[in-house]
Amino acid sequence: MKIILTHEVSGLGAAGDVVDVKDGYARNYLVPRGFAIRWTKGGEKDVAQIRRARKIHEIATIEQANEVKAKLEGVKVRLATRAGDAGRLFGSVTPADIATAIEASGGPKVDKRRVELGSPIKTLGSYQVSVRLHTDVAANVGIEVVAA
Asked: Model confidence over 27-46: pLDDT tens digits?
């Protein structure tokens, strides 16, 4: 099935790309979550609009991405959240929480869709989180999750 990506999907493409995927993957995952729309002849206008919006929000060059990477890796991020006596969190830390904490710690504004968690954060402690800034540049940010 041909689809138009509306958001960047790891391993598939960037927003505005027209890709072929299996029908079930598109119908059950990408389209319902808003990551893609079905391709139509009229959808080509949407592709141009999505690409224009992407250019405004994305980091254009690798040099800019490396500058932002240096700023991100220099920031110490502390995330206060509710936890039980054993250090287990009530819920988990989401990419949106991390993006907000990075900005609150004095770091640059980061889109929550660019934050990649290896596994869900469900306990107190220190973690390394990857932030995809450009197709070739990713920053590793140290996050300390503490009890509120």
From this structure: 999 999 998 989 888 877 77
| pTM summary value | 0.67
Strand 88-93 with 121-123, pairing: antiparallel
Integer CA distances (angstroms), 129 to 49, 54, 76, 87, in order: 31, 23, 12, 20
Adjacency order of strands within the sheet including 115-116: 77-81, 138-147, 125-132, 115-116
Task: Please state, as a whole number, how many other Cβ atoms lie within 10 Å of the Cβ of residue 133.
Answer: 23
The string of pLDDT tens digits covering residues 134-146 is 777 888 999 999 9
Q: How far apart are CA 143 and CA 79, in angstroms?
A: 7
User: In 3-state terms, what secondary structure has residue 67?
Assistant: helix
Tokens 């250019």 -> residue? 55
Write phi, then psi, for 115 (nearest 5 degrees).
Answer: -85, 125
Q: Counting Cβ atoms within 10 Å, is residue 31 exposed (0-12), middle (13-18) or buried (19+)?
A: middle
Q: Which of 62-66, 110-114, 115-119, 124-128 is modeled with the greatest confidence?
A: 124-128
Residues 6+ apart with CB under 8 A from 108: 68, 71, 72, 102
